[in-house]
# Entry
Amino acid sequence: MGTPAASPQAAEREAELLSAVNATGIGPAALGGGATALAVHLETAPCHIAALPVAVNMGCSAMRSASIELIDWGEGK
# Structure
């Protein structure tokens, strides 16, 4: 974890995915910018194609929330 994949093909795919993610322009906290992701890491293992496992870990902009306070000023105010 934290290093490029051992397989040259997987390491190349990590670089391609990181470039594609950063090209979206989403940026930190979805506020725009050039760096949406700092790294992409692929873990590979042999498996049957019918049971291809995929995991995506997202944070920051996917977990943001907002709140607003509504005040009833009443009629005529």
Remarks:
- The chain has one helix and no strands.
